[in-house]
């Protein structure tokens, strides 16, 4: 008995049809998008703060500065 890929039937020819060509640029662009998205998520964790958080920190820093300046002695 011969192997199925050598028997010359239409079924064998159908199984050996070429696959659809793939566009490598599409995969490269998708990979680049995923990399940028991962970097953006990392930056959001590292630097991302809401406006209220920034204002609260600024107010606390100003309060601390006024408190320190109020306790200074004149020499």
From TrEMBL:
Pfam families, alphabetized: DUF4169 (PF13770)
Segments for region (Disordered): 29-75
Compositional bias of kind Basic and acidic residues: 31-75
Protein name: DUF4169 domain-containing protein
Native source species: Pseudooceanicola nanhaiensis
